[in-house]
Amino acid sequence: MAKSLKNLTSILILLFLAPIIIATVQTPLFTTQPEQVEEKKTEEIPVVYAAQLEKNPVVQEVVTEPKKAFVYFTHSQEAYQPILAAKGEKIAIYHPISNITTFQDQINAQFAFHQLEATFLENYNKKEMDDYNSIRPLVQQAIGQNEYDVILDIHRDSARANVTTLKNGEESYARFIFVIGGEHPNFRWNEQMAQNLSNQLNKLVPGISRGILLKEGKGVDGVYNQDLAKNLLNVELGGIDNTEQEINRSIAILAKALSNMLNEQLPS
Fold it and tell me: In the chain, at which end, N or C, are there fewer CB atoms within 10 A of the end residue's CB?
C-alpha cells in the first residue's frame, strides 16, 4: 500500500513539473540580445572637380547655350621649371616649345566640361609677337569679329613657390593673381570682373586666388590691352616653380569658377 502511494505521489509530482521542464527547454536560460543592425550613414561624397581627373573630362550634354571665352598668351614662351626638368630640358623660365601654351588643350577640355566654348588666338608668329604692343592688333581684330563673355590673357608669374603654390588637403594648386592696368578710363570694369572671378575661385578652393594687383605709374604698362574690352582679364597662372599637375588642377578650378560667375550674371 505504501509503495503504491509512493508511486502515485511521484506521478503527481512529475505531472506538476512537466510544463515547467518543457518551457525551460524551449526557452534559453539567457536571453540573447537581438543583433543590432548598424544603420549605415550616407557617406558624404566630396565634390570631384575635373582637376582630380588624369584624363580630359567627358563633356556633359549641353543644357544651355555655352558661354564664350577668348583666350590668348601675350608672353607665349613663359615656362615652368619643373616641367622642363621632367623633360630633361635645360632649366629656364622661357622656352620656345615647352611653355604656357602647351596647356591650351587642357584649358579647352576643362572649359568644355563646364559648358564654356573657348576660342584661342592662333596662326601668328609667337616668337615675334610676344609683347602687348605687337599682339594688340591681333586681339583687337579677333574680339571685334565675335562677341565673348570673357577674354583671358594668361601668363605665368615670376614669383616663387612659396607665393604661387597652395596646399589644400591632399592636393596642391598653382595660385592665381589678376593684373589690372589702372591707366585707361574703363579699368574699373576690368577690376570688378577680376574681383568677381577671384571670389568665385576662393569659394571653390579658399586661397587659390591671391586677388588683384592694380598696376599704374612709372615703369609699368598700365593698360595691358584691357582698354580693348571691359571683360579682358590678365590672369597669372602659377609661377616658375609650379608643376604640371598643380597647373592642371588650377585650370579645372578656373573653368568651374568662370562657369559659376558667368551664369550668376544671367537675369533671373
Answer: C
